[in-house]
Structure formats: C-alpha cells, structure tokens
Design a protein that fits this description.
Elements lengths: L73 H11 L3 H15 L8 E4 L4 H12 L5 E6 L6 H12 L4 E4 L3 H15 L4 H19 L3 E4 L23 E2 L6 E2 L2 E2 H8 L3 H4 L5 E2 H7 L2 E4 H4 L4 H11 L23 H13 L3 H11 L5 H11 L8 H7 L21 H10 L6 E4 L2 E4 L5
Length: 439
C-alpha cells in the first residue's frame, strides 16, 4: 500500500556522512564546495543571494555572494563603489526629477511605500513626504506573529503622519504554507516573503491608482549581482508568464490546490504578478537607496529622532543588535534556519554590514559572529511551534498529508539535521560544529 503522507516524520541522518575526518563531503543546494571568507567583512561564499523564489524547490541551485579580487565579496565591492565613485548630489537630482514626474497636485497618493514600520520603511516614507514633498501611502503585509515592540513601532509609523493599508493574510492558509516551506525547504519565511514582495505590484495601480513604488535599500547592499546602473527592482524577481505554474514551499500551485484543500483565491496574494499585467499597469518600482547614500545606523538614528521608534528591549537571538528585523517572532527561526543551511547566521549579516559602514573592525565582527551566530531561537519557541502545528480540527484535509501534524522540539531537531550540508557540518562528541569557521 502506498504511503499516504507527503511529509513523513523526519528520518534520522547517517552520522557517517558527518565525520570530522571525512574528506569527500556531499554539498547541498548547489553551494560552493570550498568555504571561503571575505577578507574585508564576515560574509562567506556560502551566503545566499536573492533569487526567483517562486521557482524554488529543494533541487534549486542557490546563487551565492561572489568573492572577487583578493577574496573581497560583492557587497564590499559595492560599498567601495558607493563611497568612491557615485556623485550623490547628481543621484538626488535624479530623485527629484522622478518625484516631479509622478507628483500629484490633487491631494491623491502619488507613491506607495511597502514596509512594517521598521527603520528602512520609516526612513523611506518619511523622507519622501517631509523632504521631497510626496504623498505616500504605506502598505504592510502583516508579520506572522508580531512582537510587542514591533507592533508599537508599526503604530508609531502611522502616528508619524501616514495612511496605511494593512493586509493580514488568512491565518490558517499562512500557517499551512509556512509549515510546508519549513518541511520542504527549511525556509519558514518564504510565504511571508512572497506576500510582502508580490502583493504590492498587484495592488499599486489596480487598487490605488499609484504607478510609483519605493523600497528602501537595494539588494546590492547585501551582495546581489544586480545591475548597479539602475534604481529599478528587476521585474524578473516578481513577474512571471503564468503565475499558476509557480511553486510555494517547493510545491506546485496546482498540487497545493488538489492535495491540501486550498483554492486559487487562498493563494492569489502569494503569486507573482503576470508579465502582461505588470506591463499594462506601467508601474515603476524603485529603491530609494540607489538615490540616497544608505547607512543603516544613520537610518536608525533618523527613525528615533523623527518618531517614537524603539529598539527591541532585549538583544535579538543570534546576534548582538536590537533594532533590525524586530517586528516578527518568526525572524528568530528564519535566521536560525539560514545558519543551518548555509553556515551564515544573523550576527554575520549584522556585522558584515557594520564593518562596511565603519561601525566595526573586522576582527570585532569575527568575535561577534563566533559568539552569537546560530543561537537557537529559544525565546519564542513555544509560540512558533504552536503556530507551525496543524491541528486536525482546523486543517481537516491538509493535516492528513503530515505523518505528524503537531510540531515539537524532537521533530524540529530531526528536521534540522536533515538540512545540514555535510560540506559545512561535522558531528563530534554529541555536538554539531562547522567544518570551517571564520578567522
């Protein structure tokens, strides 16, 4: 009889594949077999870059940050380019021309700013309104589980003088897709990423009559190998010929509908916009960070000075900072899964950026990475496991595809081990260790 479960209880791994002495270690996700670190920041060549997530399956070969001359990463190279090549006064003139092109004189919204009220979206909306005279509408795709401080900062954003369109997805659908993404890709943030990035292009023109969208910092800041000469977000990241031929959590849309009891309506805001519709809308999606020199710590100070923005009252799990990515409890789990799959954790992301911007020396960043990277997300563990569980009474059809619909610590640890790439990890004396650590 054929096993009916799409997602079986995680199997125990073969620890022979994770011996310290192994020399021929398998490489998952198409990563670079040889681990190398940037000589200027704390990135390694395992650090994943943005990709067309709607094509992502477990077999997807992940694009990673490139190390160039003298093992300097793309992100550090971009920072040097920003600091030594760009005429920021000319860039601001271009921003003014762009604003004048779309500026409305009838009091209607003339640009859309997606975000949650964190430092990036606050800075973007506030600058556009109070310095450049635009009339932005802000739009928020609700986090999985608000932190108390994240929700207060969201309210503070609105209190600073902005209308906001808050979209809160169907919780049952969102929980199910998040669990599927965890099981299949070890990527619990993917459904939120889809909603956050695909909803805005769909509703900007159609719902609000807005043709200009502004995000904050560009993916170039994190090592993406995009075109440095354009401020536009690459449409290939959020448009596709046929949205119904895409994937969520590594599963085809049609299978999600037939096997998990979902409808096209349930999935609509997770799907990229069609090429045809996007061209028809004539929307332009820009990065404000292409026009203005982006400095995250200064952006944080700006938010504090111009609103009631508050950092987290406690250090973020997996890092030393308190003011970035603090609105969603799922952030803790997201950065932990990234560490497991790529050996890159939250402290690496934070320290690499601060080294580039002059807040840290590299040796200080290395110490912080060694101390905090990969910290287990204990503080919201109970809530996260409850959120990712699928009780049969609430998920009548979907739960039947899981051998164990309820997620607990034992299940999660077994699942975690199945996503460790042997070229990154070895197991010794009851502990997991990275084969190559940053120095």
């Amino acid at each position: 009889m054929k096993n009916k479960f799409i997602f079986k209880f995680p199997s125990k791994i073969n620890f022979k594949n994770y011996r310290h002495s192994s020399s021929n270690n398998a490489v998952f996700y198409g990563l670079n077999k040889k681990v190398e670190f940037c000589t200027k920041c704390t990135y390694s060549n395992q650090k994943p870059n943005s990709e067309k997530e709607f094509t992502h399956t477990l077999k997807t070969i992940k694009p990673t940050v490139k190390l160039k001359k003298r093992n300097v990463c793309n992100a550090c190279d971009v920072h040097y380019y920003k600091t030594n090549t760009i005429d920021w006064k000319k860039r601001e003139v271009l921003l003014l021309k762009l604003c004048d092109k779309f500026r409305r004189k009838d009091g209607q919204y003339d640009c859309l700013v997606p975000g949650s009220g964190g430092i990036d979206s606050f800075f973007t909306a506030h600058k556009l309104k109070y310095k450049y005279g635009m009339n932005p509408l802000t739009i928020t795709y609700s986090p999985h589980l608000y932190t108390d401080w994240g929700y207060k900062n969201f309210k503070s954003w609105i209190d600073s003088g902005f209308d906001n369109f808050l979209f809160t997805p169907n919780t049952r659908v969102h929980r199910l897709l998040t669990r599927i993404s965890l099981e299949n890709l070890f990527h619990p943030f993917q459904p939120f990423f889809f909603g956050q990035n695909y909803l805005t292009p769909k509703v900007a023109k159609k719902k609000f009559g807005i043709e200009l969208v502004f995000y904050g910092e560009s993916p170039l800041e994190y090592g993406n190998d995009d075109d440095r000469n354009t401020p536009l977000k690459d449409p290939s990241y959020f448009t596709v010929k046929n949205p119904m031929e895409t994937y969520i959590g590594g599963i085809k849309i049609k299978k999600l509908i037939s096997e998990f009891g979902l409808s096209k309506n349930d999935l609509e805001h997770y799907l990229p916009i069609s090429n045809k519709e996007f061209r028809k809308n004539k929307s332009e999606i820009h990065y404000l960070g292409w026009y203005l020199k982006w400095h995250p710590q200064e952006v944080y100070y700006y938010a504090v000075e111009n609103s009631n923005f508050k950092p987290s009252p406690e250090r973020n799990i997996g890092t030393y900072g308190k003011y970035k990515s603090i609105d969603d409890k799922m952030d803790d789990l997201h950065f932990y899964t990234t560490f497991i799959k790529f050996g890159i954790g939250r402290a690496t992301y934070d320290s690499a950026q601060e080294i580039r911007n002059g807040e840290l020396l590299r040796n200080e960043g290395v110490k912080l990475v060694k101390k905090f990277d990969g910290e287990y997300p204990k503080r919201f563990e109970k809530e996260l496991f409850e959120y990712l569980s699928l009780p049969k009474n609430d998920f009548l059809k979907a739960s039947k595809n899981f051998e164990k619909p309820i997620l607990n610590k034992e299940y999660f640890e077994l699942l975690t081990d199945n996503f460790r790439s042997p070229h990154l990890w070895f197991f010794e004396k009851s502990n997991w260790k990275l084969r190559k650590k940053i120095n």
